[in-house]
Amino acid sequence: MPQVxxxxxxxxxxxxxxxPSAVITILQEIQEQYRYLPREVFPRISAKVGxxxxxxxxxxxxxxxxxxxPKGRVxxxxxxxxxxxxxxxxxxxxxxxxxxxxxxxxxxxxxLLFTVETVACLGxxxxxxxxxxxxxxxxxxxxxxxxxxxxxxxxxxxxxxxALASEHSALRSNDPSTNAVGN
Length: 183
Ligand code: FES
Prior knowledge:
Number of strands: 4
Bound molecules: FE2/S2 (inorganic) cluster
């Protein structure tokens, strides 16, 4: 989970001149950084914009786009609007939950890679059943296709992590300070 850098939070608030009317935008920008609203930011926002902490908190809880819990790097939204529901969106959701060891009450994986949510309508009913992966729509979904998507994302993540690790180790081996021979 990312560490909360309060100087970054201060920069966001100061970018809006600490104006109380900008509190929603401030919360949005903080959420873009952390993918959720860490508890630590509320007293900071309160002190800098001059609203009570309870007021800032009530704004954050009023809008469902704000999250007070950490979310995964990959957000999967399964549509359960009427068109998707009648085309069997729930078995897709169940399969994703099973693959990722999630439940209706536990929507983010331990490794903070995936969050699985349901939404009322993605506005693409003609493509039902639909889900989005980090904002990209995947039409005519089935439970098997959803499981394949998860597998593909995991493989990509593993390859990226391996590439980063090998880049890191190449950088270290070229760094004279890490190659010093002990006397
Ligand atoms: S009901 Fe699923 S996209 Fe509209």
